[in-house]
Amino acid sequence: MSGLQTVTEWGTPNLGQTVKITKVLHEEDTPFQHIQIVDSLQYGKMLILDGVFQTSEKDEWAYHEMISHVPLMVHPHPERVLIIGGGDGGVAREVCRHECVTQVDLCDIDGRVIELSKEYFPHIAEVLLNPPEKLHVHVGDGIAFTKNVEDFYDVIIIDCSDPIGPGEGLFTREFYRSACRALRKDGLIVQQSESPIVQEPLVHDIYCAMKDVFPIVRSYFSHVPLYPACMHSFMLASKVYDPLTAEITRKAPSPMRYYNEEIQKSCFVLPNFYKECLFEGKYSF
Ligand code: SAM
Question: 86 — alpha (psi -120 to 50), left (phi > 0) or beta?
C-alpha cells in the first residue's frame, strides 16, 4: 500500500514496538505533552503521548477493565471515586458501570486529551460525550487537586502517563501521602505502575514508595497487547482491605472482555522474576 508509514515506541533504547499506520489523524503540542492520534492497521486508532503508546481502539479494554474493576471490587462499598489522568475516558466509562458508585471525579491536566478523545475515540470516551450525573470532569493537575481534599474518596485510580513531564510528580512519596489523606479511613488507591519487563527499577521504586505510606501494597498485572512485552503492572495500596484476602461481596458489572471473577484474585499471583523485582530490587531484563 503506497504511503504506508510506521510508528515506533522505544520501551528501551534497544527494544521498540512498531505499528504500520495508514495516516496520522492528528498531531499537536500542548503545554503538557506531544499528542499524536494515528490510524494503525493492527490496533485501529491509537493515542500516543510524548511517543508513548497510551491506548488503542482494539485493546483498550484489557487495561481499562483491569485498572478499574480490580480495586473497585476489593472495596466492599465504593461510593466516591477519583480518577487522576484518564483523559481518554476509558477508566471513567468502566467506573460509572458500578451502581454503588455515586460520585466520580476525573482530573486530567490536559484538556486537549479530553477533547481529542471525544472526537477520535467516541467508544472509549462515551461517558465524556454523554456524562452521567455522577461524573464530574476537571481539567487541572491531579497533584494539586488531591492536595485540596481530605477524608473523602473511597478509591483513587491514577491512570497517568509515564513519569515524564506532567506525570512525574504522580510517582512520589509526597503524592502518595497526599492521596492517602484524600482517602476515607478504609480507602485504597491503584496506579498503573509501568512494565515489569522494560521498567523493572521503576516498578520496584513505586512499590517501595507506596510501602512507605500504606500498610498494604499489592501488585497485579494484565496482558495489554499495546504495551511492551504485552505485560503491564498495577500497584494497589490500601488502608484496610487486602486484595489477597478481601471477600468479594458484590457482583461485578458485565459483560467484560478481560476481567472476570477468577482474575480478581489470580492477577495477584506473580511470577518469581516479578517478585524479585518488587521485593528485592533484583532485575532480570
Ligand atoms: N495509559 C492509559 C491507557 O492505557 O488507556 C492512558 C493514560 S491517560 C491518556 C494519561 C493521562 O494522564 C494523560 O491524558 C495526561 O494528560 C494525564 N496526566 C499526566 N500527568 C498528570 C497530572 N499531573 N495530573 C492530571 N493528569 C495528568
Answer: left
Asked whether the beta carbons of 78 and 100 are under 8 A apart, the reply is yes
Strand partners, 191: 158, 235
Exposed/middle/buried for residue 247 (C-beta within 10 Å: 0-12, 13-18, 19+): exposed
30 contacts 112 by C-beta, under 8 angstroms: yes
Catalytic residues: 159
Q: 58 with 44: CB under 8 angstroms?
A: yes
Considering the domain architecture, whether residues 21 and 145 belong to the same structural domain is answered as: no
If you measure from the C-alpha of residue 10 to the centroid of ligand 1, how many angstroms do you get, rounded to a whole number?
19
Our mutation pick for probing the ligand 1 site, out of 49, 105, 161, 193, counting the most ligand atoms within 8 A of Cβ, is 161
Average of pLDDT values for 175-193?
98
Picking from 16, 41, 56, the residue at the C-terminal end of a domain is 56
Q: What is the pLDDT of residues 64-95, one digit of tens each?
A: 999 999 999 999 999 999 999 999 999 999 99
Closest-lying ligand 1 atom to the alpha carbon of residue 224: 4
Asked whether residue 1 is domain-assigned, the answer is no
Global confidence as pTM: 0.97
Instruction: Give the integer Cα–Cα distance in Å for 48 and 38.
Output: 8
Examine the pLDDT at 2 and tell me if it is beyond 60: no
Q: How far, in Å, from the CA of 247 to the mean position of ligand 1?
A: 31
- Residue owning the nearest CA to atom 5 of ligand 1: 55
Residue 250 contacts residue 99 (beta carbons within 8 Å): no
User: Does 149 share its domain with 229?
Assistant: yes
For the CA of 160, the closest atom of ligand 1 is 12
Which residues span the domain enclosing 169?
Answer: 60-280
> What crossing angle do the helices spanning 200-211 and 173-182 adopt, rounded to 10°?
50
